[in-house]
């Protein structure tokens, strides 16, 4: 494939991810261009081509783009192989009910995590950092940090040193190489990841890895809430419950594969 063809595919997938990350609210052409680093005219041409084949839809009244029907059809086919939400949803719901916090399931997709399930907690004060479809680079949110920490050390170290400068530029000094390596080490000691308000001040996250049949960290369960609910002595208490839920889901996914 020519370089031009490879670049076009890369641009197209980047645009689809951005539209998918804003699935409920939609996204404008300018927002797509800014998020992907593409000229607005390029983003507009790619979106129009995707719309012609049904991969995205445009709300002309609001000028916002949404995933289209072809994405649903492709997703339904892919779900037969990759969808774990039917198995995971009861575990995520039970964790939320037990803790009163909002609980989530995220999946690893290359160097990112994407949120698949969001279960609101009963506590009236909530953080709104996570929602279904949102993506973060590994190591940024607690789910991605839990997954990163449980990768083979050579793989996690290579990722951290390669992506650290970009993460620092996008998310601040707390995501630079050295502090990220420190959080990875802490996650390995505790078994679960802690994000003490590093994305949005006052919004804490705890995450635990969920493993596939090969023992690889393919997903993560996380809790997200305000600092007063997740900090202090309650961090360890919630960490234990989170690890129990992650272990339960890992076991159920393994059982489902061999059923």
TrEMBL record:
This is IclR-family regulatory protein. Residues 6-69 form the HTH iclR-type domain. Keywords: DNA-binding, Transcription, Transcription regulation. Pfam families: HTH_IclR, IclR_C. It comes from Pseudolysinimonas kribbensis. Residues 70-255 form the IclR-ED domain. It comes from the Bacteria.
